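User: Before I run my own analysis I want an independent prediction to cross-check against. Here's the chain; please return only the structure tokens and, at the end, one sentence I can use as a sanity check.
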Amino acid sequence: MADVEASVRDLVNRDRDCSERARAQIELRRKINLLISEWKAAGGGEVLPDIRHRVRLRPLKNENRPVRR
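Assistant: Structure tokens:
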């Protein structure tokens, strides 16, 4: 989904037609909303994770690299 959003943003920034990619993005959002509603109907009640939590858990890329001198 992030790839689709980035492509729409890129097309908008370059003043290009983004209607197809925007429709794909809307369809992905509909599917996610449907999955969430099905999950809640099945008894799901936990707080769903968000991107901020995942970013905090991701290790830093430069963490294991030796310092360049």
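Sanity check: The mean pLDDT is 83.
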